[in-house]
Amino acid sequence: MNVGLVRGLVTTARVLSRPTHTTEYPDVAPPLPPRTRGVIALVQENCTACMLCSRECPDWCIYIDSHKETVPAATPGGRERQRNVLDRFAIDFSLCMYCGICIEACPFDALHWSPEFEYAETDVRNLLHEKERLSQWGATVPPPPEPDPGAPESKEVGAARKAADRARQAAEKARQAAVAAKPAAETEQPPAKQPPPEPAAEQPPPKPAAEQPPAKPGTEPAAAGPGTEQPPAAGPGTVEDGDA
Q1: Cα separation of 68 and 87, whole Å?
Q2: By the 8 A CB rule, do 95 and 141 touch?
Q3: C-alpha–C-alpha distance, residues 91 and 119, integer Å
Q4: Has residue 148 got a pLDDT over 90?
Q5: Residue 66 near residue 87, CB atoms below 8 Å
Q6: Which residues are within 8 A (CB) of 123 and not within 5 positions of it... i.e. 6 or more apart?
Q7: Which of 110, 169, 195, 225 lies at 20 to 30 Å from 235 by C-alpha?
């Protein structure tokens, strides 16, 4: 008996005993790995028309058109600036070889891989997709995976972490200095301010004494009341009014 035939029958029997894993596509979507290179999606808000992706593309399948417009100054007296406005961004997927160089070259994260792969066309000329279609695929881009805990720390992350540590240490030192200076300020209380003396009230000038009219001849002077002065009595050298 042929040995090869026996091995074939054994393999067939082994496979028949296993459950099938047939995917009923297109009724059931197949499971895709997280880094599937389906199609290139565009985020128009991030694109600055810098042309780096078009220059780095080995197939020259990316077409970009833009124009410059003047942006008014944000503050009074400021300086106007110019920015690029994206007019056209198209990718010809009949030429694209899905290398991902354009995604790696983009400095503003405007291009991403999308797991969508159902964009086949009956005409090859319809594989040239404009920015409107590329932006629709942007909603299907999965979130980036978590970094590998065993991977070395990148230079950018390390520099940002060191800057954050320095800022945190400076803030902690400033807080400790403020706490240490607070008790000293409480013990050294400034002397209480004395209110200014009130100005003395002005006394009214004394009223002059009332003058008594001269007494008429033949009348007796009125009795002196308390506080009134008596006229001096006539002595031997005085002359009376009547005698004069």
Answers
A1: 10
A2: no
A3: 13
A4: no
A5: yes
A6: none
A7: 225
SS (H, E, C) the chain: CCHHHHHHHHHHHHHHCCCCCCCCCCCCCCCCCCCCCCEEEECHHHCCCCCHHHHHCCCCCEEEEEEEEEECCCCCCCCCEEEEEEEEEEEECCCCCCCCHHHHHCCCCCEEEECCCCCCCCCHHHHEECHHHHHHHHHHCCCCCCCCCCCCCCHHHHHHHHHHHHHHHHHHHHHHHHHHHHHHHHHCCCCCCCCCCCCCCCCCCCCCCCCCCCCCCCCCCCCCCCCCCCCCCCCCCCCCCCCC
Sheet of strand 128-129, all strands in order from the earlier edge strand to the far edge: 62-71, 81-92, 128-129
User: pLDDT tens-digit profile of 55-90?
Assistant: 999 999 999 999 999 988 888 888 888 889 999 999
Residues 82, 108: Cα–Cα separation, whole Å: 18
161 Cβ neighbours under 8 A, 6+ residues apart: 153
Distance, CA of 67 to CA of 84 (rounded, Å)? 6
Q: List pLDDT tens digits, range 183-228.
A: 665 666 566 666 677 766 666 666 665 555 555 555 555 555 555 5
Q: Closest Cα to residue 39, out of 140, 108, 180? A: 140
pTM of the model: 0.54
Q: Based on the number of CB atoms within 10 Å of its own CB, is 39 exposed (0-12), middle (13-18) or buried (19 or more)?
A: buried
55 φψ region: left (φ > 0), alpha (ψ -120 to 50), beta (else) = alpha
